[in-house]
Amino acid sequence: MEVVKMSRVKFYYGGGVPLEMHKVRIVQKLSLVPVERRLEALKEAGNNTFLLKNKDIYLDMLTDSGVNAMSDNQLAAMMQADDSYAGSATFTRLENKIREIFGTEYFLPAHQGRACENILSQVFVRHGTVVPMNYHFTTSKSHVVLNGGTVEELIRDEGLEIRSSLPFKGNMDTDKLKSLIRERGADKVAFVRMEAGTNLIGGQPFALQNLREVSQICRKNGILLVLDASLLADNLYFIKTREASCKDMTVAQITRTMADLSDIIYFSARKLGCARGGGICTASRELYERIRELIPVYEGFLTYGGMSVREMEAIAVGLDETMDEDMISQGPLFIEYMVDRLDKVGVPVITPAGGLGCHLNAMEFLDHIPQSQYPAGALAAAMFLVSGVRGMERGTLSEQREPDGSEVFSNMELLRLALPRRVFTLSQVEYAIDRIRWLYENRKLVGGLNFVEEPKMLRFFFGKLEPVSDWQQVLAKKFRADFGDSL
Ligand code: F0G
Questions:
Q1: Is 112 in the pocket of ligand 1 (CB under 6 A)?
Q2: Mapping DSSP to helix (H, G, I), strand (E, B) and coil, where does residue 450 land?
Q3: Catalytic one among 271, 341, 416, 435?
Q4: Which stretches make up the Aromatic amino acid beta-eliminating lyase/threonine aldolase domain (predicted)?
C-alpha cells in the first residue's frame, strides 16, 4: 500500500493547505496578553526578545532549537533509558541507529551542537589555518576563531540575494573553493564545513550534487569534509522535492549518500531528531581516535557525552522518524505557506521559502531606519508589540563591534520567525501573517533602537536597548484604535 504523503494531498475544490499527518495529544496552554502589557514587557526586556519572559509571549518563534514537538514513540522510549555511567544500553541503541542511518561506525556524544564545534575546532584548527564554509553559523565561527583560525564564506553570490527562485541558495561556489585551496595551500585548510539548511541566510539548502562536487575537490586535495547536519531534515526534504535527479531516492538513501560524501558529520540534536543533545559521527577509526580524547574532558564519558540518557533515547527514535517524508515535510510546507502568503501581498521576505522559519527582510520592511539603529532588532520589538509573537533578530545586533568600537553592519537585516516542527497550527500561522500585514501597513510608525547596556561579547543575548523616540507608544495606540478591544 502506498502511503499518501502530506505534501501530495490535493484538495478537490482547490486552495489546498498543508495537511498534517499527525494529531495533537498533549497541549500546553498559551496566553495572549493585551498590547499595553506587551509594551511594558518589551521595556522590561530592554527591547531584546531574548530577555522576554514566556508568560508574556503568545507564539514563541524565537528558535526551533530544543522546542520541536516530540512524538509518542519518543516519549515512550524515554521511559526505557539505561542510565549506567559507562556502557549504557541507551548509548548502544543510539550508536546503532546512527550506524544504520549514516553508515558511520563511530559516534561521539556531546551535549549540543556547539560542543561538537568546540571539539572539532580544537582538534583540527591551528593558528593560521582557514575553514571554508558555504556560510558561517555564529557558534561554528566562534570556535574556529578561538582556536586561531579564520572562516571563509564561499556561498555562491546568488545565495545572498533576498528574492530569488533558486532552489539551492545554500550551495558552495566550487570555483571559489578551488581558488582558495590554490592560493592558501591544502595544508592550510583545517577542514571544509558544509552546513545543511544554511541557517543565517534563511534556512536555505544545498543540492546533493553540490555536496558531491565539494567532496570530490576535498578528496583530491586531501582535505577533510565536515557536514553540519543540524538542519539536515529540511535540507533532505528540499533535495527530495527540488533536485530532479533525487526524486526517486528515498530520504534514507539521500541521507546515506550525503554521509558517504563527508568525512565527519556533527549535529545539534536540539534540531535534528527533535530532542536535546548532539554528537559527532565518522567512519574513520583514525579520526575517531583523534577526537575521542576530548569528549571526557569537556562533555562526559563516551557513552553519554553530557546528554541525559532519556534524551538519547528520544534522539534515536527522532532520527529514525526523520527518515519519513511526512515528518520532514511539515516544517518546510508550513514555512512555504507563510512565506508565499506574505510575498503575494508584497511583504518583503526571503524567497524561495527555506527551512527553519519565515525570514522578514527588515532592510526593506523598515527602509527608513538606518543600520546603526538596528532595523531587524526594531522589527523584532515591533512584531512582539503588535502580536505577542517572539522572533529573533538576525542582523547588525547579532554582530560584534570592531576592536576600535565601530559597528560591523551585517549583509542582511532579518527577523527570523522560526516554526518549530509540529508545534503550531495553521490558524496560529494565519494569526502571525495577519499581524505582520498590519505591521507592514503601519511600518512608518516603527522607529529605531539604541543601546543602553551593551556587553562586549554576545551583545544580542544580554544587551538592553531603548526606542529612539516614543514610537512604541504611538504604535500601541494605533493598534488599539484599529483592533478595538481585541488583544
Ligand atoms: N549549527 C547550526 C546550523 C545551528 O543552527 C546551530 C544552532 C548550531 C550548529 C549549534 O547547535 O545550539 O545545539 O549548540 N542553532 C540555534 C538556532 C541556536 O536558534 O538557530 P546548539
A1: yes
A2: strand
A3: 271
A4: 60-429
**Per-residue pLDDT tens for 247-268?**
999 999 999 999 999 999 999 9
Q: What is the pTM for the complete model shown? A: 0.96
Residue 16's pLDDT is 83
Which of 291, 321, 351 marks a domain boundary?
Answer: 321
- For residue 114, report the distance from its CA to the centre of ligand 1, in Å: 7
Query: Phi, psi at residue 94, to the nearest 5°?
Result: -70, -45
pLDDT at 4 over 70: no
Q: Rounded to whole angstroms, how far apart are CA atoms 313 and 275?
A: 9
394 is catalytic: yes
CA–CA distance from 179 to each of 48, 175, 215 (Å)? 41, 6, 15
Catalytic entry in 169, 193, 394, 464: 394
In the chain, how many domains are there? 2
Pinpoint the alpha helices (H) of 14-71.
Answer: 35-44
Provide the greatest CA pair distance for the chain: 67
Ligand 1 atom, smallest distance to 115 CA: 14
C-alpha cell at 381: 520589538
CATH code assigned at 42: 3.90.1150.10
By three-state DSSP, how is residue 189 classified?
A: strand
CATH number of the domain at 194, please: 3.40.640.10
Cβ pair 38, 56 in contact under 8 A: yes
Query: In a mutational test of the pocket of ligand 1, which residue from 50, 62, 137 has the highest number of ligand atoms less than 8 Å from its CB?
Result: 137
Written as one letter, the residue type at 108 is: L
C-alpha cell at 395: 542582523
403: in domain: yes
State the residue range of the domain holding 224: 72-321
- Secondary structure element (H or E) that encloses residue 346, with its range: none
Please tell me the total number of residues recorded for the chain in this structure: 487
The last residue of a domain, from among 321, 343, 375: 321
The H-or-E segment that residue 478 falls in is: helix 471-483
